[in-house]
């Protein structure tokens, strides 16, 4: 926070002196408004992040479906190639081995993508600034 906010700057109005009750009322109304705005900011910030994650998940699901179809044809080609080298049952086991490797890599990648936590850094920063402002007003 660059400049300190003075109580006089906040509540100078029509030239009349305000009573302590009026000042307390205005401060409590301002704090109430501030809290409501911080809650709205937190909701918006988290909602935006969740929305972006949902879109990413939908795209990932579509790509996953296409990859599944490609994998079917790839595995048919691999199995046909293995059948040329070994008996059919050995070719089937080798194809399962290829699937296990691909599945393990996919699980590792998905786990890393989903491990990123959702944060509300802007809201945290604003709340710290608001607390500092309220503390500075209370010292006067």
- Supply the helix-strand structural class: mainly alpha
Radius of gyration: 31 Å
Mean pLDDT: 80
| Shape call | rod-shaped
Q: Roughly what fraction of the amino acids lie in strands?
A: under 5%
The largest pleated sheet is described as: none
How many separate structural domains? 1
Uncertain spans:
none
Q: Distance between termini? A: 18 Å
* Order of helix and strand elements from N to C terminus: HHHH
Count of helical regions? 4
By DSSP, the count of extended strands is: 0
> Into which percent range does the helicity of residues fall?
over 70%
Give a quick summary of the entry.
By secondary structure, this protein is mainly α. The protein has four helices and no strands.
What do you see in this structure?
- This protein is mostly helical and 140 residues long.
- It has one domain.
- The chain contains 4 helices and no strands.
- α2 packs antiparallel against α3.
- The chain is rod-shaped and about 100 Å long.
- The mean pLDDT is 80.
Secondary structure elements and their pairing?
Layout: H1 7-10, H2 20-85, H3 88-114, H4 121-138
Distinctive features:
140 residues; mainly alpha; 0% strand
């Amino acid at each position: 926070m660059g400049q300190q906010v003075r109580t006089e700057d906040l509540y100078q109005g029509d030239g009349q002196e305000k009573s302590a009750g009026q000042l307390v009322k205005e401060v409590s109304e301002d704090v109430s408004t501030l809290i409501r705005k911080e809650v709205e900011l937190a909701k918006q910030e988290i909602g935006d992040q969740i929305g972006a994650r949902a879109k990413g998940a939908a795209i990932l699901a579509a790509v996953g479906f296409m990859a599944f179809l490609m994998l079917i044809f790839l595995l048919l080609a691999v199995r046909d190639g293995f059948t040329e080298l070994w008996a059919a049952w050995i070719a089937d086991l080798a194809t399962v081995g290829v699937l296990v490797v691909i599945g393990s890599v996919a699980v590792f990648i998905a786990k890393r993508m989903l491990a990123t936590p959702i944060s509300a850094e802007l809201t945290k920063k604003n709340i710290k600034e608001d607390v500092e402002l309220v503390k500075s007003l209370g010292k006067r």
